[in-house]
Design goal:
alpha+beta; 2 domains; three-stranded antiparallel β-sheet; two-stranded antiparallel ribbon; about 40% helix; about 10% strand; globular; JMJD6_ArgDemeth/LysHydrox; Jumonji domain-containing protein 4; 2-oxoglutarate-dependent dioxygenase activity; sequence-specific DNA binding
Length: about 220
């Protein structure tokens, strides 16, 4: 998060700490500085939350917030803020977990129409994409693209090599690490009941075949 003027960041709270912020309905607060947040009936467990960090961000400074750390920003004057989110091998499983939660939320919201809406599961994926910007099908395609790039790189890794792979900016250890994490997440994806309802007939590669390839590479590189 980079800003051209002054901002105040409340938090960030370490991943998992946000559970103490949930209200009696299970929702997270929109504004933790609102008076209603102090209502113990609405937020019965917020007193168990660890004290937040408060950061004053000056013009031109950058704040790094780790994956899963909830935070709230207050602009103290007119501000242009630039935020950048990314996914890598370290937080890929978090992204998959988030998408599963998002789909569950959508399914819960329109559950009363399940028996009257043709292709209900497909519509859930459409709604999920409109809310989150991605659905299960697109998440698989994302995994496939990154997996194929890493699989091309791993061919250049020889026994005992530790230098960066020329032209990629990645070292052998990171390449192998990414392949392993993609394999772990994809193994969860292919057995997910909602993903199994996705039409994969037009996919360039069957998810099961890609997973098998990844697992074979992981097994082969364990001795490098």
């Amino acid at each position: 998060m980079w800003t051209t003027t002054v901002s105040s960041t409340w938090g960030p709270l370490a991943a998992g700490q946000e559970e103490a912020l949930r209200d009696c309905h299970g929702g997270l607060p929109y504004d933790v500085t609102a008076p209603s947040f102090l209502d113990s009936h609405l937020h019965p467990v917020h007193e168990h939350c660890s004290p937040p960090l408060e950061v004053m961000q000056e013009a031109g400074e950058m704040v790094f917030v780790p994956s899963g750390w909830h935070h709230q920003v207050h602009n103290l004057e007119d501000t242009i803020s630039i935020n950048h989110n990314w996914v890598n091998g370290c937080n890929l499983a978090n992204m998959w977990h988030f998408l599963q939660q998002e789909l569950c939320t959508v399914q819960k919201e329109i559950s009363e129409w399940r028996n009257t809406m043709p292709d209900w599961h497909h519509h859930c994926q459409i709604i999920m994409r409109s809310c989150s910007g991605i659905n299960f099908e697109e998440f698989y395609h994302f995994l496939e693209v990154i997996a194929k790039r890493r699989l091309l790189l791993v061919k250049d890794i020889g026994p005992g090599e530790v230098e960066r792979i020329e032209g990629s900016g990645l070292g052998p250890q990171q390449t192998i690490f990414d392949i392993g994490r993609i394999a772990e997440v994809l193994a969860s994806v292919v057995v997910n009941p909602d993903f199994q309802r996705v039409d994969t007939s037009m996919f360039s590669q069957r998810p099961e075949d890609l997973l098998q390839h990844l697992e074979e590479v992981v097994a082969a590189t364990e001795s490098l």
